[in-house]
Structure formats: C-alpha cells, structure tokens
Design a protein that fits this description.
Number of domains: 1
Order of helices and strands: HEEHHHHHHHHHHHHH
Number of helices: 14
CATH architecture: Orthogonal Bundle
Oligomer: single chain
Strand order of the largest sheet: 1-2
CATH topology: MetI-like fold
Largest sheet: 2 strands, antiparallel
C-alpha cells in the first residue's frame, strides 16, 4: 500500500466519527451559542434576532450586530447563578469523592474474584440500569422520607428517638447521586484492575510488602487511568443533574440543571437558558481537557 493510499484510508476511517461529532455536537452547540447571544421575545421562536437568509450581506450584517453578551453578563453579575454553579461543583465533587472511596474496594474485590464469579458480580452492578432511572429516584423518596423505610428501621432498632429529616436536603442529593452513578465508577475501575498482571502483586509480596502495601503501592497507581475515567464519567453528568436535586433536594437545593430547566420552561427565557447551558459546558470541558493532556503525557512517557 502506498503512502497516499494509507492517508486516504485513514481519512475515510476518521470521516464517520467527525461527521457524527459535527452533526450532533458542533451544530447543536453553535445553535445554543447563537441563542445565548440573543434576547428574549414574544414570538416564535422566542428570541431575536432571527437570520433572514434572503437578506444577503445586509441581512447577515444586521444579524451579527444584534448579537450581544448581555446574558453572560447577567450570569456573572447575579448571585443566583454563581451560587448554583458553586453548589453544582461542590455536590458533584463530594459525590465523586464518595464514589471513589466506595467504588475502589468494590472494583478491587470484583477483579480479585474467581473467573466464575466475575460475570455475576458485573451483572449485579449493571442490574440497576434495567430499571427506569426515575423509578429508582422515587424509590429513594420512599426510603428517606420521615415515615420511610430508613427511619422506620432506625426507630425499631432504637438508634434514634425521632425521624431524621433527610429528604429535601443536600444529604439526600448526595445519597441519590452516589447511588445513581456508582456503576460509572465501578466498571471502569474493574476493567483496569482485572487486566493488571498478577505477577506484579506477587513480586511486591515476595519483597515483603503487606497486602495493604501492595494495594496502595502497586494496584492503585496502576489503576489510575480507570480511576480518572470513572471520576470524569461521574463528575461531568452530576454537575448538570436535574432529576435527583429536584426530587430529593427540594426547593433549597439549587444546581445548574434546575436553573436551566426553570429558565427554559418556567420563565420561557431561551437566551438566558442557553447561556446557562454554555456555562455548564465550559465547566465540564475543563476536566476533560486536563484528562486528555495527562493521558497524552503518560503515553509519551511510556514510549
């Protein structure tokens, strides 16, 4: 195969994913960005300006001149949106940290299990996906409410004297986030840990390392790619989560997902809602870029 044919083949292979990203990411993002630079209007669509394709160069000029950054100035100057962004980041970071603490030993136990049990353990982790996400969140309402299963069990055991107020708090949101996104942390970690060479652990043990030392010095560092991938898979969607804060957090829990829904459906302010969506994308894009750069450096170091 000639060099020209090889370049052509690589271009053909890359074309479908590039077209997919362009059609389902870049084009929707460009539309959202344009709406975020518009102003609300009582019309259809509910924003101005709208490009007049028949207007020629003058139409394009008038269209571009009418775009402005007022909505982003509103986001920067209003404490409501700053508090929502900070609360989203805080809850997502805390929930991700909890998932790392919980998911790492689960994935490690699954990876160390016998080959006969590993498929069964993976199936048990995936089983919650077989049930509607909304139904699972409603189930947590039944568990966490004052007269729910958790308080009834604690009262029966005599561990508490009065029902705990868990529902409609940030604690309930953290519980819901941790439960809903646990498979996204466990499965990437398990995929990496199950492929680790057992000889590395055996060599560390032969050198006198205890099982705990082997885990912290050998297994965990080599599992870092799965750990980071799982953290990103959990953190990114949790920042924009809407259903869990709305159902478990109540009116006191403010996150960007709820603000976005409120601006879009309640206030009918599509431009401001689009600005919140762009802000949300910029927030989650940072960790992805950092992870990509870290992976690139790790690959170069390995070579």
């Amino acid at each position: 195969m000639t060099a020209r044919s090889a370049r052509f083949l690589r271009a053909v292979v890359r074309l479908p994913p590039l077209l997919w990203l362009g059609a389902f990411f870049l084009v929707p993002f460009a539309i959202t960005l344009k709406i975020s630079l518009s102003e609300p209007a009582t019309a259809m669509p509910p924003y101005l300006p709208v490009l007049d394709w028949a207007g020629g160069i003058e139409g394009w000029s008038s269209f571009l001149e009418a775009l402005h950054f007022t909505n982003f100035e509103t986001l920067a100057g209003d404490a409501l949106y700053r508090d929502a962004a900070l609360a989203s980041l805080e809850l997502a970071l805390i929930a991700t940290a909890i998932l790392i603490v919980i998911g790492t030993p689960i994935a490690y136990a699954m990876a160390r299990a016998s080959a006969r049990w590993q498929p069964i353990l993976v199936a048990l982790v995936v089983v919650p996906f077989w049930t509607s996400f909304l139904i699972r969140v409603y189930a947590w309402i039944a568990i966490l409410k004052p007269e729910g299963l958790l308080n009834a069990g604690l009262l029966r055991l005599g561990l508490i004297g009065a029902p705990l107020e868990i529902i409609n708090t940030q604690v309930a949101v953290l519980i819901g986030l941790t439960y809903a996104y646990q498979p996204f942390m466990v499965l990437p970690l398990y995929a990496v840990m199950s492929r680790l060479d057992p000889a590395l652990r055996e060599a560390a043990a032969d050198l006198g390392a205890s099982p705990a030392r082997v885990f912290w010095s050998v297994t965990l560092p080599l599992s870092a790619p799965g750990l980071v991938a799982g953290a990103l898979l959990c953190f990114i969607p949790m920042v924009g989560e809407f259903i869990i804060p709305d159902l478990l957090g109540g009116s006191e829990t403010l996150m960007l997902g709820r603000v976005l829904w409120s601006e879009f459906f309640s206030n009918r302010d599509w431009p401001l809602a689009s600005a919140v969506a762009v802000l949300l994308l910029l927030i989650v894009l940072g960790p992805v870029i950092l992870f990509r750069e870290a992976e690139t450096r790790r690959g170069e170091a390995a070579r």
